[in-house]
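hey all, quick one before standup. I had two proteins in the batch that finished overnight and I want to keep them in one place so we stop losing track of which output belongs to which input. First protein below, input sequence then structure tokens straight from the run.
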Amino acid sequence: MPVLVLLGCLCCVLLTPLPASAWGQTGHRVTGAIADRHLSSDARAAVQDLLGVETLAEASTWPDEMRSAPGRFWQETAEPWHYVTVPPGRRYAEVGPPPRGDAMTALTRFSAEVVDPALPREARQRALRFIVHLIGDLHQPLHVGNGSDRGGNDFQLRYFGQSTNLHRLWDSQLIDRQQLSYTEWTAWLDARITPALAAQWSAATPADWIAESAALRDRIYPDSRDQSWDYGFEHLPALRERLSQAGVRIAAWLNRLFEPG
């Protein structure tokens, strides 16, 4: 798909009428590593040209790592780019982005920048890292916030006796409790991604990603504030699917952006 057509589709999503890091380092690296396995030859060449030996797994966490950097860009401009807000029963197209922007407006911006040969290499590298990260963010259900509890950050609970909140639980605790490295997660998840599943997931639009996350978000708030084994048993299958989908869709997005012509 030509770049202009791809960006036009995304702009339609944005113009038709919440905060925190997503997935944690392990989850983001899983999405980047899965994406790396599904890149086209043209996209792989473009990624290597921009990043050199830096992998997509490494690039995936960079926007979160930079959030403590001084300066207005990181402390103000980029702060709201990690999430979108969609109240229950609404669609993103009905709500639209806030004045300061969100993950969708940022994805539009960086999708244009990464393929702009007039920009400095450093700007295009930044754009690529953000693209990988933002698509991952949009697949974490609590990064499609409901507008009332800061993406689950205000929903306090105890997980195996430890005080936490729902956002942190989905960012990292469900993942880390499995005691797997990101490479183990990647190998196990990618082995189950059939060509048919990859094709199906790749065809989804950003509006679809957000709608999926919103629907999942509304099902993951527990009745009890004291959770342990049962919560993981119920929700780990969905978490695994979201990581897998994010990886495939990062690759699909980059494959389209870097498609010749």
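OK second protein, same deal, sequence then tokens:
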Amino acid sequence: MKRHVPLAGQPNFRDLGGYATADGRKVRWGRVFRSGELSQLTDDDVAVLGELGIKTVVDLRSPEEVQARGESRAPEGATTVRLPIASGDMFSKVVPMLLEGDFSQLPENLLERVNRALVRDCAVQYGDLLRTLLDASNRPLVFHCTQGKDRAGFGAAMVLSALGVSWEVVVEDYLLSNVYRKQDNEKMLGMVRQFAGGRNGQTVDVSKIEALLVVKPDSIHAAHAEIRSRHGDMHTFLTGALGLGGESLDELREHLLE
């Protein structure tokens, strides 16, 4: 089985199968997928999702993002579940800086702040994601945000943690967004350089923009630290804040592990 699913309209669509758990089992292939937005899929891409048997699309984007970027494209008969999480003030910070060609005021640890906020403020959405996945009639399921690296990245961390995958492996999966989004990231950085440089006629330092596009271990570790600080450990966060009781965890593992 292959982790990455090549799509013309989305570079970061991948299977969460194959990861080993602490008790020696493995996540089943072809049951749960993570992705960036599905609104730019081609007809052939949608056909690939049909071949994968996708029954449910969980869209973590805000209504404003859906309006701007379009509805998720999915195979006929698939259900879309909306669990909106606002993208925060990231782009409201970036746009005026882009117009000025000066990114010096952009916080270097913004993605760490984003991940901590997901722990604090979005337990309902991620709990609902796990409960949606728990229902066998919803599988195979894919969940996605816009780029598939932050909100979907944290979602994947919660799914894998609920299944008993070690945190070290969770981080490895998180960092794969850099592999599959490399070309898109370079394209976006080139556009930023061209636009901002054209505005001020100077070479523009885009290192802080790059820090928003490239995920780092510290970003997801910040979420883990927030979980431990507020809830003690991951199990308590999953069963308490996310509302996935012990029996639900056992059932999820029974169906998604082999």
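Flagging for whoever picks this up: The CA atoms of residues 59 and 82 lie 5 Å apart. DSSP finds twelve helices and five strands in the chain.
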